[in-house]
Write a structure and sequence with these properties.
411 residues, mainly alpha, Growth Hormone, Chain: A, 79% helix, 0% strand, MDR family MFS transporter, transmembrane helix, transmembrane
Length: 411
Amino acid sequence: MRSRRGRTWPTLSPLLRLLILTQLAFNIGFFAVLPFLAEHLGAAIGMAGWLVGLVLGLRTFSQQGLFVVGGALTDRYGVRPVVLTGCVLRIAGFAWLGYAQQTWSVIGAVLLIGFAAALFSPAVESEVARQAVLWEEAGRGPRTRVLALLTVAGQAGAFLGPLLGALLLSVDFRTVCLAGSGVFVLVLAGHLWLLPQHIPGRERVRVRGGVGDMLRNRRFLAVCCAYGAYLLAYNQLYLALPDEVERAAGSQAPLAWLFALSSLLVVTTQLPVTHWAAGRLDQRRSMAAGLVLISAGFAVVALARPAAWTGVAGLMPAAAFVVLLTLGQMLVAPAARARVPDLTPDGRLGLYTGALSSVSGLIVLAGSAATGSLLDAGLPSWAPWLALAAIPLLATVLLPGRVRAPDPSAG
């Protein structure tokens, strides 16, 4: 098993290796800055808490909500110009944020930073998905192995980025921002040199008409809803989990260790989990199994809540939740990305890849508001967690069965 997994990276094309390493670099630069932004806005600039939340929400919307725009532009103009433009905007956004001191200036910088990702991320992810299909068709293995490498690279960047940021924060926040900008300067230079002007097989299409067909593509929208259920569950790391940790430990200090546990699990076990799943489960069953594991994570906390354990024992259900959620993520995320090419008409992979993030992001936005209300509703302590456990289970019903490659003229 190990030797077969070990052959995955060497068999990748130079383009695939570049794109996967790009994901690593993107996340190092981004997460060197993001974890320290809220503290900077509140303590250094003096923003009120609601305004800090608004700024962070605007950044998320300008990124996740506009992925569909970046995907459509990738289909129209190609991967290279969209990635390079996104890098230039990210460089400018981080530099601007480092010097921004007024509210309007901070908002402008974070919107630019978010929109930059809305350009380059769908471009990279859609091309990795397309190349993964070609890799699979060449008989080298299931496409999920390639997409798992993309997940590992992203998670490794999310792990290393805050370490870089914390190191530079001893100077000041501006230095952190300029370092993040510098990472993207290196990415830009590398892509100017290495990223092909035209990628064979990637035809450019007009933006017009693609969105309407996509909105009539029920199978694709069903996958988006199931993926959105996973992301809503994942978002509870930042919403429901802190409340549970505070209850059990009397502070949120253990959160950092639980987040590190999640990152470490992905980096060390994503590839073995994907290899195991590829030999036993198709993409639909992999997503379903992942959603069931996520549901079990919520159920563990719901069952333990009436006992009201505290201290180390009280943190065990939270740790089990993180482990089960992360294992579920490792099954759902690569499988969902692997399904998108089979549900996409020719020439629209960028649009559909971006829409997967945008549609599921809207689900998370609406679901997070509902979850927050649920947590504040004064219900028995186990009830919100049990309700959250039901959502991934219900999402498994939405998953479409195996499909053939779509007719380009069909929605």
